[in-house]
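Note to self: keep these together.
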Amino acid sequence: METYAVEWTEWVVHRVFFWETDNAKKGRILRAFHHLLSYSLIFLVVVAHTLYPAFWLQTLVLFSCGVVWFHHIVTHGCVISKVEQKLIGDTGSFLDPFLELFGVDATERSKQGILMMLSTLGIFVLTLGWLSRLHHKVVPYATAYVSAGVRSATALVQHIPPTTSSP
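Structure:
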């Protein structure tokens, strides 16, 4: 599945960037879009949990991150990064600036492992946050619904006339 996804994505890149004939330039354009979308998603995670903590935005961010996480797990890393590397002819990835910052010398296999581990940890934390928000939204409605049902049942029981037994 991984090779099919890489080949299909590369075919799409060649069709979208039809005006560019140099593969290295196509790869750099794709890398710029990839980094833009990745950093935008990270920025949205921060915004959705600090500046604008709306439940709908957190749900949208969780869904987007879930799609990215699933994509990383199924294809053993990022397909877009693999297409970038194939077109440019290098081994650069989204993680390289962070690995250089911390002085980590990583192989391609360990970069894939780090990426999958970080995306799994991120989706786990986002899911826990979303579930806690969902819990705080659902519990008041559920308790109000249950207590209304209990009140209705109590009222019905209190208004039923007693049955008399005949000898």
